[in-house]
Amino acid sequence: MREEILLNQDNPLQLEKLYRGNKPSFKAAFNALYPEIRTSPLAEGWYQRLNFHQDEFFWGTPAERSFVIAASLFAALLAKLPEIFSIQEDFFYPRNLGFIVGPALMAYFAWKNNITWKTRGLAIVLLAVAAIFINWLPRDQHSDTLILSCIHLPLLLLSMLGIAFHGGKWNRDTNWLEFLRYLGELVVMSGLLVLAGGLTTGITLGLFHLIGWNIENFYGKYIIVCGLAAVPIVATFITRVQPTLVSKIPPVIAKLFSPVALVMLVVYLGATLVAGKSPYHDREFLLLFNGLLIGVMALIFFSIAETDRSEGNRLQITVLFLLSAVTLLVNSIALSAVLFRISEWGLTPNRAAVLGANVLMLAHLFYVGLKLFSVLSKRSGLSAVGASLVVFLPLYTIWSALVVFVFPFLFGFE
């Protein structure tokens, strides 16, 4: 290895190949050889690269940690508002679930990105208007427009979080793929924290049970509720201060589950035909069909976001193209079923919401599929696929806002 390094000391490409072929041997040989070639700028760069030691125990600055603790306590306080002010839980949580965590995450990124106070003030006003509106809606657990508003409001808050993530900007230069990657890492880290918390909960309850103390009620009402409220905030903090901790997990998930989802979707469509199930007459099956569609679409978008960063191989792009094509077929079936139900039984808030969402997803999937095909035919690069992924995000935001604020009036709070 020493002779090979010495022979190729001015060839960066060959040095990289040697390094990737056997990293431990390369490092040992290079460090032994370094005193002889230290005058070379290339050698100096390699020496710094090989001997750089990052502090693995760096968990942000004291100000960052204090901010995260304060934000977590604030989220926990919001989660306990029903108990503090004797508000019925079935009224509070469906309407305000997004407000428990969303504002804290927005505040974190606003602080990290030094967003102007003018932008912060506008965000606070929008949050206040949304909170007042959703809690003002008539209390009717059977109101479709109320349920739709409660479902779409977190999506609207997610758009506001994306703007805060990018420093209060929303323009063509904003790299929204980075925000999608952050969401993927947030889901992974939140899942790990929940699993760890679940294990700790089981051990704690078991230990106290052994000494005759039944703390399940207290633990569930305070520790679990407050802990769940703090999970997204803590997970965000970890992904920001330790970016390498979970950054390698999402690409692995994307590569593993994309072909699995493709096979599952094809088999499911075949099984649906054999079983004689039809989304045209079975409302519950149509809802399940749309849920499946949303889940697979999320996997496609997540996979493309990771593939764009890793410059995925041709096989991976082919799998994503086939998955988008099959999902496009599923979307078309779901859309035709919704149109059929509207023509037979009229327009309702639920059917209008599903119709708009299906039209958006159909157009988006078609556009993404075209870009994936262009990559396969070598007419464009992966960057075009990434651009196609984010170009529809403003439309999803507008649609969510319409469902939240317009549908209740349009359908008479039905």
From TrEMBL:
Keyword terms: Membrane, Transmembrane, Transmembrane helix
Transmembrane segments: 67-85, 91-110, 122-139, 145-165, 186-210, 222-241, 253-273, 285-305, 317-340, 352-370, 382-411
Protein's name in the database: Group-specific protein
